[in-house]
Amino acid sequence: MNNVLIINTGGTIGMVRTPNGYAPKSGHLLEQLDAIPELHSKEMPVWELIETSPLLDSSNITVAEWNMIASIIVENYDRFDGFVVLHGTDTMAYTASALSFMLENLSKPVVLTGSQIPLCEIRSDGRDNVITSLIIAAERKVREVCLFFGGTLLRGNRATKYSADGLIAFVSPNYPSLAEAGISIKYNDTALFSPLSGKLKFHPFENVPIGVIKVFPGIQFSLFESIMTEKLRGIVIETFGAGNIPGDGNSLLPIIKRAFANGTVLTVCSQCPQGAVSLGAYETSGALKRAGAVSGLDLTTEAAVSKLYYLFSSGLDKEEVKKNMEIPLRGEMTVT
Ligand code: ASP
């Protein structure tokens, strides 16, 4: 019988109703899990639960919590066959991406899940999400950080929250799902990582100053000049389509050139969830490349942000960060 460690960080799944809306409450999740008979069935893996303190709505998760979750996994790595991280859906894809970079040479499943409706409500989707995540974590078929939600297992650093109120809340627009949980759990073997031989390495993150700018028609880039100082280490620019920004009469390029000279790494992502950035395909994007920006290809913004944290926290210089941003390190991007 395999052992799984459940790490509860907060999120809707274990929340209670309060006069101010749903909020996490310590000890409540264990009561809810104990009341699910299936979780104590002989067919289920043996599980233990750790709760982080304080429990958080995932909007309040920071780099400090990412470090804490990763260290709990590292400290308990040899005692368990797999890990289930219960987390709010709002920033689950960010945490999944961050953990994928923090935990190098992972050889056991780390499955993030949660729910859109708390376990204490009759129509909660949490029950099935937890049961299936526990089974996946115990099976040891996957060796990476992944996200299970609404019947589908996704690579963590490819997932993005897609629905604010649907029970299939996450998608992976640029990478196939790792498994589908229908009548049985069917793994997509060709999409999974093959076994690795190295030892698990933990890369804690520093709270590196990073920004994200979403481009829109009529954007006045000069307004952003005050944040583009040498203090800013990395910036993700969410551009139109394949990496395009408004051209004529805007002040972005000089700002980008200056930011690059200041040591800021500019990564170009697309506002389109599906497909990849192709710098230089249009005149409007070629200028970004010449100004020193790097292509985020088909990275999600969540993966781009956490990859910048990872690379800067590893002590790499600007040129090395730039180079690594365009190379897949944990299956987070597609290079054709
Ligand atoms: N605000 C909640 C959270 O992210 C939403 C959820 O869990 O679904 O913690």
Question: How would you describe this protein?
Answer:
- A hairpin with a 3-residue loop joins strand 12 and strand 13.
- This protein folds into 2 domains: 200 residues, 3-Layer(aba) Sandwich (Rossmann fold); 116 residues, 3-Layer(aba) Sandwich (Rossmann fold), CATH 3.40.50.
- The chain is globular.
- It is 25% helix and 22% strand.
- It has 8 helices and 18 strands.
- By secondary structure, it is α/β, with parallel strands linked by helices.
- The model has no long low-confidence stretch (mean pLDDT 95).
- The strands form 5 sheets. The chain has an 8-stranded mixed beta sheet, sandwiched between helices. Strands 15-16-17-18 form a 4-stranded parallel beta sheet, with helices on both faces.
- The site of aspartic acid has 11 residues, from loops.
Layout of strands and helices, then pairs:
Elements: E1 3-10, E2 15-16, E3 23-24, H1 28-34, E4 46-56, H2 63-75, E5 82-86, H3 92-102, E6 103-104, E7 110-113, H4 126-139, E8 145-149, E9 152-155, E10 160-161, E11 170-171, E12 179-181, E13 185-187, E14 201-202, E15 210-214, E16 234-239, H5 252-262, E17 265-270, H6 283-290, E18 294-295, H7 301-313, H8 318-325
Helix pairs in contact: 2-3, 3-7, 7-8
The chain binds aspartic acid.
Aspartic acid (ASP) is lined by residues 10-12, 57-59, 88-90, 114, 116.
Q: Can you give me a brief rundown of this structure?
A:
The chain has 336 residues and is an alpha/beta fold.
Question: How many strand elements?
Answer: 18
Average of per-residue pLDDT values: 95
Order of helices and strands: EEEHEHEHEEHEEEEEEEEEHEHEHH
Shape: globular
Cα gyration radius (Å) = 20 Å
Number of helices: 8
Count structural domains. Answer: 2
Low-pLDDT stretches: none
Q: Structural class of the secondary structure composition? A: alpha/beta
Ligand names: aspartic acid
Termini gap: 42 Å
Described by strand count, sense and barrel closure, the largest sheet is: 8 strands, mixed
Beta content = 15-25%
User: Which fold name is given in CATH as the topology of the largest domain?
Assistant: Rossmann fold
CATH architecture of the largest domain: 3-Layer(aba) Sandwich
Summarize the amount of helix as a percent range.
Answer: 25-40%
